[in-house]
């Protein structure tokens, strides 16, 4: 099972520019979480801080008892081995074929024999649907295949936490759907804790168990997907609705007068439709995280807003008392 990641009071600046402050959230073990946010709000900086590649000024990121911010470098280095990182562009070496690219972490960080390396690489290539492309160079394959190769490489060291930076960037909607399914299938197969950073609304709507959003240097919210999808925070609604009107502008923040004018035109806004979460492909085991999430959500049931509870009912059925008592 994946490992829980506890983020507490995290603040990161570059010089005088504060990227975000006081970010607190927990990535539940084995569940899939998405961090949304307009461009430049610090999603990538957040991923790098979680894995200890960037050092926030304040706060902690606890993984397996190690603080990835203020812990000993040696402990951080060891704990980093629990992570698999999928970069935006796949980050493949252009001169190496896919097999060697995917084998790279095994050759670099383990003393495994070539026969064992071959077994692992072929297994991971099979998981992401790349068998048969071992000898291709990154330049000879599509963007979607490069992403999947990046994902396979993130998997070779059997990570318990997987961080994906914009798995959809540069992909068309069809390939984005494939990668969404791939991420859910992967979660069903290895039950790793996953954090996906994206501004893709399809991924946000169909993949995660939990969602959060960064905006204006703070974490707007983080919790079960239904909480964000039914949120009435203007910034969340604007983002999920893909609209021009709202607090997010080209320069990220709009002035008060523009906002007030827009507010007048938004009164007939329709509620967002909540798409069902993707299921693992036929033949794969069910996601173990689903049962754990159900128990977790039921434990917080009384504290959830009515709209989120209503949205959850279908997804949580069949369940015991608390859900059936709800008449919202
Ligand atoms: N190493 C760095 N040094 C200085 N500033 C940085 C550094 N890395 C990121 N930043 C700044 O931090 C801010 C957040 O960047 P980040 O790449 O995390 O945003 P993002 O939300 O991932 O954006 P996008 O969705 O466009 O990828 C930006 O203003 C960026 O210029």
Q: What can you see in these coordinates?
A:
With 328 residues, this protein is of the alpha/beta class. The chain has 13 helices and twelve strands. Strands 6-7-8-3-9-10 form a six-stranded mixed β-sheet. It has a four-stranded antiparallel β-sheet with strand order 2-1-4-5, covered by helices on one side. Strands 11-12 form a two-stranded antiparallel sheet. Strand 7 (161-165), helix 6 (173-190) and strand 8 form a beta-alpha-beta unit. Helix 3 runs parallel beside helix 5 (143-155). The two termini are 35 Å apart. Residues 14, 19, 37, 39-45, 199 line the site of adenosine-5'-triphosphate. Adenosine-5'-triphosphate binds at residues 14, 19, 37, 39-45, 199. Keywords: ATP-binding, Nucleotide-binding, Transport. It comes from Actinacidiphila reveromycinica.
Output the keywords.
about 325 residues; alpha/beta; Rossmann fold; six-stranded mixed sheet; four-stranded antiparallel sheet; disordered C terminus; binds adenosine-5'-triphosphate
Provide the fold topology:
Blueprint: E1 5-14, E2 17-27, E3 32-36, H1 43-50, E4 58-63, E5 66-67, H2 73-80, E6 83-86, H3 98-109, H4 114-127, H5 143-155, E7 161-165, H6 173-190, E8 193-197, H7 201-206, E9 210-215, E10 218-224, H8 225-229, H9 234-241, E11 248-249, E12 252-253, H10 256-265, H11 289-299, H12 306-316, H13 321-324
Parallel strand pairs: 3-8, 3-9, 6-7, 7-8
Antiparallel strand pairs: 1-2, 1-4, 4-5, 9-10, 11-12
Helix pairs in contact: 3-4, 3-5, 4-5
